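pinning this so it doesn't scroll away 📌
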Amino acid sequence: MAELKAVVFDMDDTLLSINLSAFLAVYALDEANLLAQVARKSPVAMFTALGTCMLELNNGEREEDDHRTNRAFFADTLRERTGIPLLDPVINDMLEFYEREVLPKKNDRIIAARPREGAHKAVQAVLDRGLRIALLTNPSFSRTCIECRMGWGDMLDMPFELVTTWENSTRCKPCAGYYLESLERLGLAPEETLMVGNDPKRDFPSPAIGLRTAYVGNGTQPGALWNGSMAKFAEQFDAIAEKFEA
């Protein structure tokens, strides 16, 4: 087996404990209301359009020669459905202001975002072994929106070499292309990298590319290198790294 050089982490329900469904509902509803006001359209219709565009972004049904960023793909899809030019500087600035100044204050008892137990210890255990780290969160959101959640998880000061966002990615999880382009940016081969994630589908590349996953979600995944909680991952990381290289 190859030498382990880096550990790449998912974010939501991996390093960050969060009611993701509640977060997505608040985020989408707020942005739909803002865009509806700008375009003088029904908020309900705008909410539906945003949801449909997000599904299209995540379903992975794109031509191989489509090299648009996820941001550009989403903007093009939304414009086709609503006529709204999402990348217009005025509209872009409005949404960025919301995500930077308003969204961080939306963390309540329902969203309940906080560092996941063992997350900081896990990252430190990786760094203590002299390994590189990156945050491979699903890139269907802007950098600003992702940094909002990173802030809730006290991750903004972590030395991630890469944080995937819809500005710097052209595919979403679990598409193998997403993982390959992210690792290429880091100068890593899949065989040199360990993915840590909680999603039994998205955190395992499809099709497989030789990237092994430590699974920290519910239940167990037969295809994972290791299964357990994030707290256990932190405690057992040396043994996991040795298993990786065995």
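📌 and the second one:
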Amino acid sequence: MNKALEKYPGAIWNFSQPIEDNVGETLTGTKGSMALKIFGEDLKILEQKGEEVTAVMEGVPGMHDVKLLRDFGQPNLDLTIDRAQAARFGINVTDIQDAVQTAVGGNAVSQVLIGEQRYDVAVRYQNPYRNTARAIENVRLLSPTGERVSLAQLTKVEVKDGAYDIFREGNNRYVAITFNVRGRDLGTTVEEATKKIGEKVKLPPGYTIGLSGEYESKQRAEGTLTIVVPLTILVIFIILYTMFRSYKWALLILLNVGMARIGGLLALVMTGTYLSVSSGVGMLALFGVSVQTGVIMVEYINQLRARGHSIADSAVEGAVLRLRPILMTMLVATLGLLPAALSHEIGSDSQRPFAIVIVGGLISDLLLSIVLLPTFYAWIARDSDQLPAPEGSFETL
């Protein structure tokens, strides 16, 4: 369809669905899920700069379906009032405007009542006297002296290209360029396009560029995550410190949380999935499982030391004996999310990155928890560490 439509120069097209149209129009105010807007006063300058921006965006890898929503191209019949001539005949501007309105558009002179329904009765000139520029020029007005004066004597009549659509946002005019991103992640593509536009397109004073749609939502979500993630880590640290009464063990478990993220990122790279808001939420969900495995391991090793085992023996035995419960915890979450991670059906685009991050993170967390966590524990542990009281019944699984 795209190749077939490219044969028609000047045509603007877009592929979408009714619901997608409604969502896109809500986000951007245009028929597209992503739009770049140039704000300013002069429509001609806006369209000129829109053409320059469109040319730059088409050269950015990953940018597709770049379309400038043109404002100009509609032929308009402009009547510019000659005030000197109007004053000469004693006719004011309002009379001239009313004459044009009555002749071409019509004016309501009465109403017809049908039950509770009201209909305006409008009168205007017949077609032969208003359907051409020549006919409109010959529309007559009656001057105070009784002389009949034509519009051609009172106005300058010209046919000019004008705007058939004027888009506004925040009481500012703008021209929109819609686009899609395919084969590349949204963030770096838009950032590269913005950088090139800033280098190659010079905007006059008072003209600005703004982005709306999915990219704007992505930026807003990332801004929220930059606040949520540190707060989450801080809350986890406070809970761990309350549990162990030691900064050392709390930081060791947080290190395990950081190692789990490595597996999530590697899973995204291996599957060719871009880092997105969905995958970022998956990272947050991964924190909880990583903390759980770290707590299981560190608490068990501390119990072994409290019962008289050496640091090295406790670390080794804790890694071996805690393998089964940690493995069971990992498998429950991994097998539950594996179908979502492998799905490519309709609607899977939002859930697949979330599941991929958790599955990859849990697999790596299992390997790292069994090997690296006990190793780091043995490195930082000291005989002077404060240990919990040994439990009465201590079973090994």
